[in-house]
Design brief:
Number of strands: 12
Mean pLDDT: 79
Structural class: alpha/beta
Radius of gyration: 37 Å
Low-confidence stretches: 1-13, 607-611
Strand content: 5-15%
Shape: elongated
Distance between the termini: 71 Å
Length: about 600
């Protein structure tokens, strides 16, 4: 049986917003499919409990037989009937063995239900993730989504397996013990029941006082964990600025609060069992006195007194278990609620009207009166118009918050426009299937992404069927081939999950190789060379120029000096194109672009002169 709830078991603190509604959903939509298995669990749990409860009564008969035999021997009789005691003992062993078998079947079946259920829900969540719009992930942290997949599903799985069987067992045990106690002596049973309200009041007061310390403990536990994660993540900065003493003091302060709240919560929680034992012992004394009086009057046997005392001792256990199960149920329903909320999030709506062969599209892009905002109240793209010919190199420039990256998100349908339309070769992007549309694009972003696996697998991510020769050619074009050959296992070298075993520049080169290999019709480059040293940047720029030939390319530029040779520069400010043209034309206008360029040039010159 589970022990007392200790510190760190957050489920004692969690409550569902809609307990009944979530429980109903869990039962009807998920557990309902395992109706037969649940019936098996119920039958075998009841059977296991019944066989266990009958044991003390039969053992009491053995005690009575021994007592009567001893008394008979003292009176000159035959003495103890060991044959009958042996029969009783064998009967007991058989009952306990059957009970164990029933318990095994019950647990085996319930474990199967909980694991199958969580397996199914995990699959649903992964499918859901792929169907959710990007705006959902913009509003949620990675930790929140991961917590649903890991913590919430684990909580559901464990508590479902434990709570259902414990509820059945505990309820059956209470009812069974009461029946057995009443069958032995109703007077002694009433004495046992009198102590329950006293125990309930005391336990309620203890739990009420300890609850606030458990909550405080969880708060400071999160603070301590957060400090450790922050310090570890920025350890080089802490050491570089000699901040060790400061972070140690901050940690000690939080740890001290955690210590005090943890001590108080554990102490008060630990009082529950001594108090229950004390109350139980008072009841035990009352039962023993009443049993002795009834035995003297000949209304009860010695064996029945022993059986009753055993039942009396067992009676408080299922009550404690039910109290504990209630917190497990709260945690399970709270976790289920978060899982169901995630699964019920609105998905991306496909608006495909016809099947369009993406291979036949060339990369002509038109923006017509595009309006967009991330929420209904705010519009950040007001009236965006642009016409881009296939093969053109388009630079999008402007201050932070001008809407540069937003335009790319709209182009790839990470978001849909509020008004207006975006066309590729005359086809509205809303008429194209998202997956097919995105096959046309290759992206190299400022923030690189590689997964744990081999170098070759990372480069082939956008084109799984690529040959080794194609991978090598793409790597040479992005100037990363030489670096890969210096790795212990070359293209078969493993990149760890944090990609901490290669530099930021090398990661960027690999992502560029990935795009080169994918051979897309439209390129999106978001300051793709920002993490690379000057010498490598020149090499990459030349590779990019070669790659962009014949392909429509959108370059989100932060350093204006890198886009002088663009075919068209779109200058954005507050969601609108305020100027467009080539570099020389825009400088000659002496407008917003010229102001941006000159201010950036002046800053760069000032930095050079400082050195």
């Amino acid at each position: 049986m589970p022990g007392p709830m200790g510190p760190g078991k957050q489920e004692t603190l969690e409550k569902a917003k809609d307990f009944k509604g979530t429980a109903r959903k869990l039962i009807h939509h998920y557990l309902g499919k395992y109706r037969i298995s649940l019936i098996i669990v119920l039958i075998f749990a009841i059977g296991s409990t019944i066989f266990t409860i009958v044991g003390p009564k039969i053992l009491g008969n053995a005690t009575t037989e021994i007592f009567n035999g001893l008394i008979g021997k003292l009176s000159g009789g035959d003495g103890i009937n060991f044959g009958k005691i042996g029969e009783i003992s064998i009967t007991l062993l058989v009952l306990y063995f059957i009970s164990a078998i029933f318990s095994f079947v019950q647990n085996f079946t319930m474990t199967g239900i909980s694991q199958n259920l969580t397996y199914k829900i995990r699959n649903e969540i992964i499918k859901k993730i792929n169907n959710l719009p990007m705006k959902y992930f913009d509003q949620k942290t990675n930790g929140e989504v991961l917590s649903i997949i890991t913590n919430d599903i684990d909580t559901l799985s464990f508590n479902l397996s434990q709570s259902i069987t414990q509820i059945i067992t505990s309820v059956c045990t209470i009812i069974g013990i009461l029946i057995m106690m009443f069958s032995i002596s109703w007077q002694m049973t009433l004495i046992s029941l009198v102590i329950l309200p006293i125990a309930g009041v005391l336990v309620k007061n203890i739990v009420g006082k300890s609850q606030k310390y458990f909550e405080k403990q969880q708060t400071y536990l999160a603070t301590v964990n957060g400090q450790v994660e922050e310090i570890y993540g920025g350890l080089n900065i802490v050491k570089a600025f000699n901040g060790e003493e400061k972070v140690v003091k901050e940690f000690e302060k939080a740890n001290q609060e955690l210590y005090h709240s943890g001590w108080k919560s554990q102490f008060l929680s630990g009082l529950m069992y001594p108090v229950m034992n004390f109350i139980s012992n008072i009841g035990y004394v009352g039962v023993a006195v009443a049993g002795g009086y009834l035995a003297i009057n000949g209304t009860i046997t010695v064996g029945n007194i022993q059986s009753f005392i055993q039942y009396n001792k067992q009676f408080t256990q299922p009550i404690n278990q039910i109290a504990q199960i209630s917190s497990m149920l709260q945690a399970m329903i709270a976790a289920s609620e978060r899982i169901f909320e995630f699964l019920e999030e609105p998905e991306e709506i496909e608006t495909t009207k016809e099947k369009i062969d993406i291979e036949k599209l060339k990369g002509n892009v038109t923006f017509e009166h595009v309006k967009f905002g991330y929420d209904k109240e705010t519009t950040i793209i007001h009236d965006f118009n642009a016409k881009i010919q296939e093969g053109q190199k388009i630079a999008i420039v402007g201050p932070t918050g001008a809407g540069k990256t937003t335009m790319v998100k709209l182009l790839m349908r990470f978001y849909d426009v509020k008004e207006g339309a975006i066309f590729i070769d005359g086809h509205n992007v809303k008429d194209l299937e998202r997956g097919e549309l995105r096959k046309m694009f290759g992206m190299v972003l400022q923030d690189t992404w590689l997964f744990g696996g081999t170098v070759k697998d990372n480069i082939k991510y956008g084109k799984e069927e690529a040959t080794d020769d194609e991978v090598i050619e793409a790597s040479k074009a992005s100037h990363v081939h030489h670096f890969i050959k210096t790795l212990p296992q070359g293209y078969h070298s493993m990149i760890n999950e944090e990609t901490s075993n290669i530099s930021a520049g090398q990661k960027q080169l690999m992502t560029i190789a990935r795009v080169i290999l994918a051979d897309p019709k439209i390129l999106i480059l978001d300051e793709a060379t920002s993490s690379i040293d000057t010498r490598t940047e020149i090499q990459i720029q030349s590779a990019m120029d070669h790659l962009m030939k014949g392909r429509t390319s959108f370059i989100i530029a932060h350093r204006l000096s890198t886009i002088k040779n663009a075919d068209l520069i779109l200058v954005m400010d507050h969601g609108d194109i305020v100027e467009q043209g080539k570099h020389e034309e825009l400088l000659a206008k002496n407008g917003f672009y010229a102001e941006l360029y000159n201010s950036q040039f002046e800053v760069e010159e000032r930095i050079r002169s400082d050195f």
